[in-house]
User: Fold these one by one.
Assistant:
Number 1:
Amino acid sequence: MVGPSRSRETEDPPLPEPDRKATMSRWLPLKAFRQGSPLFGNDVVDDDLSEGIAREELSGLAYMFWGRIVVLGFLALWVFFTLPLERSGAYLLAIVTFALLGAPPYLLARRGLGGNAVTAVFLLLDAGVLCLILLVPPPFYVEGWTPQINLRLPNILYAGIFLVGMALSYSPTLVVWTGLSLTAAWAAGYLWIASLPGSVTNTSRQMLDGGFTPEEVIRRFLDPQSVSLTVLTNQVIFLLLITSLLTLAVWRSRRLLRRQVAAEAQRSALSRYFSPNIVRELSTSGDALIRPERHQAAVLFADMVGFTGLSEGRSPEALMGLLSEFHGRLARTAFAHDGTVDKYIGDAIMVHFGTPRTRDDDPVRALSCAVAMIADIESWSRERQRFGSEPIHLGIGVHYGDVLVGNIGDERRLEYTILGDAVNVASRLERLTREIGCTLVVSDNLVRAVRQAGGDPAAIAPALKAYPARTVRGRKAPVAIWCDTEPA
């Protein structure tokens, strides 16, 4: 029997899919973020913007549908309790019919089968049915009631309510279409009644300038067959004005919506490059990050021990998956402790606490983060072993001291980072874990800072033991350290 190839032997068995989004972190020019440079990833932002607008439009259809249901529900209750049963039945049937007409565009849009064209067709049908209900008197009206008399009722107000409800759509186009459809349907119905046999049409100018006496004007106005074209003109103007104002309001709301969605899209895209605390700072006072500042911070370096051996024989895809999972776990732990992920360096990660703003508990969170990282990687390592993969070992170094926080590079390519002796010492302490044979090495500076902040190093990291001072590369004076193993 032929055995599997070496590359297959060293590939890890499939593990649960990691959270890829939490692992994405790169460097990004802050100036490019504010100016909308292609370096920011406008394709991502445009996609997010389009998706955000589409979500809001679907949400608008939902509000329109449920708003219609609520309003019609109130009308149904009002009809049921105020009208006799023989009259309320027909009205309730009309209300139910109008309610059902609002369901198809919303349901189709939810399934991705509809769109503005489908919605426009149903809105045209809505306008026609609504005007039919409002203009044509039902057969159970009192004897002698004519369609012409029905024109004198304030039914146009219900049409106005329907039109106002379109403001929930976030679509100026749909508002204009609905207003024009409703106006056309109303005018067509009104003129149809005016054209019926026996209808007597008149205008205000005819009534006032026709030489009629006041008694004749009143008699013509009260005539059951009288139809005022002036009233129709006023109603059409009313609908068109409401349509214009609503269109302007929805257009302005949509602009504000686009700005809000764009800001969220940019924030989302920015979070793929920066830690959450940096994103918050950029969202509120981005210019503050441009100015370099000197203060104290805790610096943490975490590295995968034996990465060279683990990477031997692995395909690039498998190696990338391993690093993504490793980085993702460390980054999530860092974010949970409100740390700033500075960069990924191969199989290592650099995190600092005290940026962009210092806090009293920076050293406490740094030590707690280191302990949590170790626990998480140990848990992952046991899980890998159950699947038949090699265990993962970690080395972490943490130091507390003065740093310079700000941007380095030029205006075309900036990197927000920290510089200073504290960074170098933390990196050297992480390297000491191999020499000493431990997982965690922290400086005495950090331990003292934890105590000064009100924390208890023994409670946070019970395994820590004082270790003889060590000389690290790049420093003349030895560094007092603590390790999670007993001194030899």
Note: The beta strands are 200-202, 226-228, 293-305, 340-345, 348-353, 393-410, 413-419, 440-443, 465-470, 479-483.
Number 2:
Amino acid sequence: MTALVAVSSHLPETVAVAELQEPLGLDDQQVRRFTRLYGLDRICKSPLSEAELLVAAAEKLDGLRGQEDRVKYVIRAKGMRTTAPYPVSPVHQVRETLGLRHAQTLSVADHGCATGLLAMDVAGTLLAADGDPDALALILAGDKTFTPFTQWVQDTSIMGEGMAAILVAPDGDRDTVRGYASRIHGRTDGVIDLTPEIAKHARKIYQDALAEVVGAAAEEAGIGIPDIDLVLPHNVNRVSWTVAAKNLGLPNDKFFLDNLSATGHCFCADPFINYQTVTELGLLKPGDKYLMTAAGLGQTFAAMVLEH
């Protein structure tokens, strides 16, 4: 089964939400909502380019050093469709810098902040088809907020520039993928902007759609939702996960939200940044079943169950 070999992240210096009030055009009420209600405090921001941020994350991967020749695929997981101005290609810059010129390179997108989990599934599929038990895939997750559209989701979250690098193997004896589910409740015209109409629809379906993919991933893993030991969500806001915990019948303390106030919502890198933190804290025991889950613009929902 697809396995996580190593995960690293780069978290830039942070700025307070209050310092972003003028740049984002927030009023006082919105600042209070984001900080007091949603639990956001500081947001990762960096003057570095997207490629430099991704390299900073990948260079911390101990499992990559000396194993570069085993990397068959470099997969860029993008929360946004466009993450750099044409003709800049951050993923190719990263591949060259890391010395992975022989690796096939591709990007996955259009699942919004659920794209990181899609990239995990794509990596597992490619490695299984490759047939080489020693092959590896490197996933690069996270986005640079280089346009006003990418800096915040109105009345929902503020985006950070933390990045994650994930090394994936076709099989392993820990952190193996047991179940994955993804659903798109999008529009035929492909519009993802949160217009009042789309935002209303997104709020209406959000919790039920999230519960459906969590249930589907758990079923594929052969467990029930109550059997999940820890949830590593994307850091959208505290309220959404408080409601989700009640809707899923899980206690609030099973949701790891400690990074939410410290990083902001770092697109599809969040679950992996959270994974690195909980492993460093020793919060996962051998055999624990943990859930990575996320929702993205365009009403895309995903959940993945792994066994530590």
Note: The mean pLDDT is 93.
